[in-house]
Write a structure and sequence with these properties.
Chain lengths: 116, 114
């Protein structure tokens, strides 16, 4: 079965420190991978996505993610976090079937807390 | 830039009552989706509509019905609300030509069933 796992429910990082949020997927074929961010009381906003090609992808707000097929991972990173990065982060995936419109499968989310 | 608009934003129901959540998008997207978000569960797909006139069940469809009224609008109906349906509901849309398009989300509708 297709699944997306975010091992960390909560992560606390000091402002200015680096960040890495983990995401692992389980699929029988090539996945398409996404990271979304949700600020309190808001909808989800796309940070970045990976379909193919360069395994290091750049997103908005200074985020990047690296796809590692051997580890079935798509970890999100940021060199230096800001207090405004405190939010819920979701990893998501879809399986390309040549068409159709199946929804994304989401991980359960990682809640990021920024310490001053 | 409206994007995806959901109404209402908040609703309190009593067990057994019915209601409809409305969703409209102005991006000319083919595909629309309803998700529910529960603490520690992430987002789970309830129903989706690949194109006008079609709907399909997602992961958690029981207790819900949907209508794709036209290309813009996709509604979610609870015929007899239950406390287990207390959740935040998100509508989303994307172009739908392939599975690779970004999902655009509304701001959510918080539903409490007493």
């Amino acid at each position: 079965a297709q699944s997306v796992t975010q091992p960390d429910i909560h992560i606390t990082v000091s402002e200015g420190a680096s960040l890495e949020l983990r995401c692992n997927y389980s699929y029988g074929a090539t996945p398409y991978l996404f990271w979304y961010v949700q600020s309190p009381g808001q909808g989800l906003q796309l940070l970045l996505k990976y379909f193919s090609g360069d395994t290091l992808v750049q997103g908005i707000k200074g985020f990047e993610a690296e796809f590692k097929r051997s580890q079935s991972s798509f970890n999100l990173r940021k060199p230096s976090v800001h207090w405004s990065d405190a939010a819920e982060y979701f990893c998501a995936a879809t399986f390309y079937s040549g068409g159709g419109a199946d929804g994304l499968t989401f991980g359960k989310g990682t809640h990021l807390i920024i310490q001053p | 830039n409206a994007g995806v608009t959901q109404t209402p934003k908040f609703q309190v129901l009593k067990t057994g009552q019915s209601m409809t959540l409305q969703c409209a998008q102005d991006m000319n997207h083919n595909s629309m989706y309803w998700y529910r978000q529960d603490p520690g569960m992430g987002l789970r797909l309830i129903y989706y509509s690949a194109s006008e006139g079609t709907t399909d069940k997602g992961e958690v469809p029981n207790g819900y019905n949907v209508s794709r009224l036209n290309k813009r609008e996709f509604s979610l109906r609870l015929e007899s609300a239950a406390p287990s349906q207390t959740s935040v509901y998100f509508c989303a849309s994307r172009t739908g030509i392939t599975n690779t398009g970004e999902l655009f989300f509304g701001e959510g509708s918080r539903l409490t069933v007493l």
